[in-house]
From TrEMBL:
Residues 231-329 form the HTH araC/xylS-type domain. SMART domains: HTH_ARAC (SM00342). This is AraC family transcriptional regulator. One of its GO terms (molecular function) is DNA-binding transcription factor activity.
Length: 330
């Protein structure tokens, strides 16, 4: 499917604006958009016009924290199939995977989830194409606050850290009060950092039947970035590694797919689950042996091996040397 060049206007944006005391008509007028835009089903805008919409929201509201307020006000779970799927997932981690995997159904934006079990962090990064310029801060705030609100549904009061690419904020105190965690300004990315362990927390809105019904629609209508789907599977494998060997069905649930669909996806990309599992294990093994003093038994556990001997044999098959020799040479 051709990569998207337009951004879908969220169905719940107009009532959320009203709830925040912002006149939708004034926003559309300032942005130079049609007065009936919010009433058009499936309305979508070119990226520059969508950014202008969010700049107008900021100006009309005269509120530097309007993006945070909109994320709290919008009834996302009752609007788009995308959001319905997010809230139908079993765990916070699975919901973030759906956010990442299907975000492009709404806009030409990539969302990456990087889980570092050793450091205990799970980083969710939002990336717009380089050619469109920096997104308005109100839009960045709304997207990161949406994830924060999602995490708060499973009793995660605050992220570990927020990273904002903006060189400055108009009113930093509002962001500090909302997030309740360190905020890095002028970062190379817009990202929310959660505790990796929190990804396993259950969502109270879990609805497996609804999720099964929605996924075919999302798959059919989401333009995937090259290799993006496989990277999501890699991340899911990495998240499940500690303590036990990840299974096809478990990883498939994490990325909101059936086991059969997952295996078909990997075949279409010229790989297989076992191959991807070995790649992820080898990559993490090299990282642990280079950067930590973990014993072979501890590394084996973190990689999901049943015992150190199994890890030893696998590592020798991957590299032609023992873990100890590799550590000495690196």
């Amino acid at each position: 499917m051709t990569p998207p060049t337009r951004c879908k206007v969220p169905v719940g944006l107009e009532p959320a604006l009203r709830a925040c005391g912002v006149a939708p008509g004034d926003v559309l007028a300032l942005a130079g958009l049609p007065t009936g835009l919010f009433s058009v089903p499936g309305a979508a805008l070119p990226v520059p016009a969508y950014f202008e919409l969010w700049r107008a929201i900021r100006k009309v509201s005269d509120d530097p924290d309007i993006g945070l307020a909109l994320a709290r006000a919008i009834r996302a779970d009752f609007t788009e199939p995308y959001f319905l799927a997010v809230f139908s997932c079993a765990t916070l981690g699975a919901a973030v995977q759906v956010v990442a995997r299907y975000k492009r159904i709404l806009s030409p934006e990539d969302v990456d989830l990087d889980v570092d079990r050793v450091g205990g962090e799970a980083t969710v990064t939002y990336r717009w194409p380089a050619g469109v310029g920096p997104p308005p801060q109100a839009l960045v705030d709304a997207e990161l606050a949406f994830l924060t609100e999602l995490a708060r549904r499973v009793a995660v009061d605050s992220p570990l850290r927020v990273e904002l690419a903006a060189p400055m904020l108009d009113a930093p105190s509002g962001h500090a009060a909302y997030y309740g965690c360190p905020i890095r300004i002028g970062a190379p990315r817009n990202a929310l950092v959660l505790a990796a362990a929190d990804l396993d927390l259950p969502l109270g809105t879990h609805n497996p039947a609804l999720l099964r019904a929605l996924v075919p629609y999302l798959r059919a209508n989401t333009p995937a970035a090259p290799g993006g789907e496989v990277e999501q599977v890699r991340s899911a494998i990495a998240r499940r590694l500690p303590g036990a060997r990840p299974t096809v069905d478990a990883v498939a649930r994490d990325v909101a797919m059936s086991g059969r669909s997952l295996q078909r996806l990997l075949r279409e990309h010229g790989t297989a689950f076992r191959e991807l599992l070995d790649e992820v294990r080898q990559e993490h093994a090299r990282g642990y042996l280079r950067a930590t003093s973990f014993s072979d038994a501890e590394v084996a556990f973190l990689l999901g091996f049943g015992d150190p001997a199994s890890f030893y044999r696998a590592f020798r098959a991957w590299t032609g040397m023992s873990p100890g020799r590799f550590r000495q040479q690196n």
